Amino acid sequence: LLNILDYCGLDPSEAIMVGDSSTDLLMAESAGMPAVGIDRQGDGSSFQHQSAAAIIQSLKELPDLLKKSPG
Does pTM surpass 0.70? Predict the structure, then answer.
């Protein structure tokens, strides 16, 4: 993730990781960037031990979430 951010000229605080696995959220945490988890199971079990800025059920929810996000 850090290589991608560097290539794009972005700081981790200027991006957000969207993923559907605990590994995705761990990568974001390691990079120091916020993350949104997509909980396709609908029970939250995929992200029990990770911190996420938000958990959504479908990628379709992301645009509205980003509109509400500060910054």
Answer: yes
